[in-house]
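Support case: user asked for a sample of complex input and structure output to validate their parser. Sending the pair below.
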Amino acid sequence: MSDKHSPLQNHLINALPAEDQARLIPLLEWVPMTLGQVLYESGDTLRHVYFPTNSIVSLLYVTESGASAEISVVGNEGIVGVALFMGGESTTNRAIVQSAGHAYRLPGKYFKNELNQHGQLMILMLRYTQALLTQMAQTSVCNRHHRIDQQLCRWLLLSLDRLMSNELVMTHELIANMLGVRREGVTDAASKLQKLGVIEYHRGHITVLDRPKLEELCCECYAVVKQETDRLLPYVPKQPVK
Amino acid sequence: MSDKHSPLQNHLINALPAEDQARLIPLLEWVPMTLGQVLYESGDTLRHVYFPTNSIVSLLYVTESGASAEISVVGNEGIVGVALFMGGESTTNRAIVQSAGHAYRLPGKYFKNELNQHGQLMILMLRYTQALLTQMAQTSVCNRHHRIDQQLCRWLLLSLDRLMSNELVMTHELIANMLGVRREGVTDAASKLQKLGVIEYHRGHITVLDRPKLEELCCECYAVVKQETDRLLPYVPKQPVK
DNA sequence: GCTTCTGTGTACGCTAACGAACATTGGCGT
DNA sequence: ACGCCAATGTTCGTTAGCGTACACAGAAGC
């Protein structure tokens, strides 16, 4: 991985006016995000917000019986810790790193301070939150109506969008935890996709070979989320990522 | 139905400081909400926000194939149309009246005006939105992991909390649309609950006889949402509802 | 009183996904 | 080079929920 890193790799930071960036960026801390790392647990008081750059974070809920389900995914398009600016200080979810990389971290009090003083950050946060609402709603619908293989397609596409490469470091077991299904169910779906030549996988590595085909096999849920996110938060890079 | 009605029956309005109420209340329009009425469709530009008093509104998503699923429920604890203050102006959901009654309606421009000028309304909206996020997340989990009869219990409890009475005017068919399952599935679950003496129903009317038992039979999802909503938006009536 | 329609009950076969158990294999540590 | 374990493959019986079809009864309209 290149040592070139910049907060602007995060789309929300990127979307801020220059003067807001100038104030905010010095407060940010560049931190590694390791696979499986838990940023916060259900009920924890949040200490920081995270702006992922090349990492992916899953928000998931763990039931009393230990089963889990992914509520939404956050990558460089978003921020982890919306509860801090929503005023709740905690959520009922767990935030866990789904794909290793880095993020920029900001202590909660600085974040809230910025929010209160400058409107642009707040506006952006609100729009992002609406995108998050859309994603959650769609996850809910997908859980109800679509088959595992369709959901796997959705999940792969959401992950791809948040990575630079077409390879995911991810086991069937972990995907199963995210989707809230059995590992065997994921294996079945993945092997089906592999037979179709859409993906190729091997012991914890999944490579997407044919993205158009993947979108074809997917249910509508991916497109709905993607379109709405693009509408709410159009991405215009202010500085080319070197 | 009594002709006694007041915007304070809505918990969000009720929670505002007196001076904010004084400004806001004259702008509100008291409107009837009829069963099945669609407040907005997916993609519509929202014109108003609604503060339900004794009505209940479902936010639901309709898939390409025509299947539906309820994303969340809004009653007198909340507001319909968060997209207006989130900045998106529209959502991918449909808002439909699930239980007839009334609401107070506010044109979008007044609403946004109020938001920008006075912090207290914004703070309240943010907290409510977090409660909504929680509800959506939990619906998603419930769709994945819990049986229809448990989900029916959750749905009944969520509805009860938003009504004064223990009787719902609601057919199995409509509940099925909300839960995103077959009508027969709801009939099975409901008949099971009736045999247990928890509810009693008859051609479009459901009466809850034993609420504690209903909570017992329910999955954790109801309690999680309830607890988090109470935490985020504690309800302290400022004027007893006559 | 009659018809008609809406809401509910019930039965049948079917499928997706589950739970559990076990086989196989590749990669990693020592 | 070896052994071990994590990752994947496969099977089998079970179950929840689906799609369909149809029966029945109460309510509403004429």
